[in-house]
Design a protein that fits this description.
The chain is mainly alpha-helical. It has one domain. The longest helix is centred in the first third of the chain and has 35 residues.
Length: 239
């Protein structure tokens, strides 16, 4: 009886983790609704919520052992669905509605490039790196709006990073890092808080230039990726 209760409890906990992952999609929906009514501040904050959920749900899933207790439920597919919404589709809408791009067609670049990236069998390397730019379009969209980048500059970044999706450079996967794990993940948490504060209280904290200062973490992310990652050779599969 005790073992049965323990098994049910573990399964319930596994379902709760999957529900937490799915809630990232709800946060993405709220970001769309906020942007649709012109509340770009709330939309950006909801995108940060969605990003934060994705940052921790994988660790939670491994701790709970979701694949052991729910072997017939594909948590990775769920995660990919939610990630494509929160990291790609919603930011593309945000770019259009904030008029960060001169024409909606430019926002199609991240969608097309990331459709390829998400579909690659080796989108993540065996040593736990992302292969190709990992579709952080939510970060790009937030910076384009918060820094009031010109549409022309935003387009240059969209083109450059869309191409980067196809370049097999290895980018660090923070929750799977063997080196600099705590530095990277605590830095990510601090980055989220700093960006959120800069967006939520622009008048009170604008003099601190928090959004500009937060760029230090993306620069750190790229530098560590170049240091620990490098290029990934994609093997050709025989037909």
């Amino acid at each position: 009886m005790g073992e049965e209760l323990e098994r049910r409890g573990s399964r319930s906990l596994a379902w709760a983790v999957h529900a937490f992952t799915a809630s990232g999609g709800v946060a993405a929906l709220l970001a769309v609704l906020a942007a649709a009514r012109g509340d770009f501040q709330s939309s950006a904050l909801w995108m940060l919520v969605s990003l934060s959920i994705d940052a921790v749900d994988g660790t939670m899933a491994r701790k709970v052992g979701v694949s052991v207790w729910l072997p017939d439920f594909d948590g990775r597919r769920l995660d990919d669905i939610v990630d494509f919404l929160g990291y790609v589709f919603v930011p593309a809408l945000f770019l259009v509605w904030t008029e960060s791009v001169p024409h909606w067609s430019w926002a199609a670049l991240p969608i097309l490039a990331s459709a390829y990236g998400f579909s690659q069998g080796d989108a993540k390397s065996d040593d736990h790196f992302f292969v190709g730019f990992p579709s952080y379009w939510n970060v790009v969209a937030i910076y384009a709006w918060a820094l009031q980048m010109s549409p022309g500059i935003t387009v240059i970044w969209l083109v450059f990073l869309s191409i980067a999706v196809f370049v097999p450079l290895k980018y660090i996967y923070p929750s799977h890092m063997r080196y600099l794990f705590w530095t990277t993940n605590l830095g990510a948490g601090a980055w989220t808080c700093v960006v959120a504060a800069g967006i939520a209280w622009p008048e009170q904290l604008g003099h601190l230039h928090l959004i500009e200062l937060s760029l230090a973490y993306p620069l750190y992310y790229v530098a560590v990726s170049l240091w620990l990652g490098g290029m990934q050779r994609r093997a050709r599969k025989n037909a």
